[in-house]
Amino acid sequence: MGPxxxxxxxxxxxxxxxxxxxxxxxxxxxxxxxxxxxxxxxxDPIATISAVKYNEEFxxxxxxxxxxxxxxxxxxxxxWQRALAHLGGCNxxxxxVLAQQGNYQKSGFNxxxxxxxYQGFTGAPSIPSPHIVPLNAIAWEDVLTYDRQCFPAPRxxxxxxxxxxxxxxxxxxxxxxxxxxxxVLRPCRVGDKIGPLFADTPEVAExxxxxxxAIPAAENTIYLDVPEPNQAAIAxxxxxxxxxxxxxxxxxTGQAPPIALDKIYGVTSFELG
Length: 273
What we know:
The protein has helices at 3-15, 24-29, 75-86, 101-106, 140-150, 156-164, 202-213, 231-239, and strands at 36-41, 44-53, 58-66, 91-97, 110-121, 132-134, 169-175, 178-187, 192-199, 221-227, 243-252, 264-266. The chain is α+β, with helices and mostly antiparallel strands. Strands 1, 2, 3, 4, 5, 6, 7, 8, 9, 10, 11 and 12 form a twelve-stranded mixed β-sheet that branches.
């Protein structure tokens, strides 16, 4: 796919109820410009998939969609195989719906844990933290170094676009000149999503969460995708009255990467990991 075709995939995702961000196509395309695939039948697009190859060791699958009238005819399998070929040699991750775990296991994927989507509402923080600063006040190399604790591979081009995209709000928690966590709020088709939300401690995560959910000028729906193993993240969502609305199965073809799940309070996206 080219950039405009990635926008088509995002529109299809919206039709499936996945609620993508307004600027997702621009950001996702930077992850791997060869990794977004389109299936054509007699010249008409009928299937999409993303197979983002972050490096030679790690890749991530998403946007696996076949138009409803063409499902069950083998077209999805064809584009799935092409995506796996693009990621050959990688440990491949995905966030799949729980009902499809069995099908993914047939392709060599193993369940690592669940990711849980919480929904709540924006609102002002009670006591704004003095440690919250705009992300662009932090040295970019420090942001990349911090991100690598929480993500299995470098993702500089994607992250640069994600954090600086017009409409996205990126903030950091800095204490004594040290980056202790950061988060991004992005406007979506419905409401806003927080992701990533990475933090050293529950207290840092809470300060970032409160600052991010206070950004919208009017009350709006807000979403936070939490890895179930991080019980402190679940406690944060529950403390502020967020409700579970969706779950995914995080699966990998290899061993689950050694990332700091205890620092992940919000997943960046279900499409790119």
